[in-house]
Amino acid sequence: MARNIKKFAKELEERTKQFAIDIVRLSSSLPNTPKGRAVRTQMTKSGTSVGANYREANRARSKADFGNKIAICEIILKALKSLMLGTLAHFSSF
Length: 94
Prior knowledge:
Blueprint: H1 2-28, H2 34-58, H3 63-87
């Protein structure tokens, strides 16, 4: 059982790493306008912090600590989703 959990955790770390790479690629395709730069900066910061926060959660000292750190990941992802859905719709290339 513990082996499956560790395998899952490692796979999710890799997925969050790929997610960060994909977010950087997407954000770099935004127009070089004031609005585009603002969205790019926020999108890049949020998208790359998910993986870092998830890796930190895996190194938590307790179940409560783990839960708190996973909650941070969820909050960031919800904010990123809102940013992407709300703002990217305004760019004609998307």
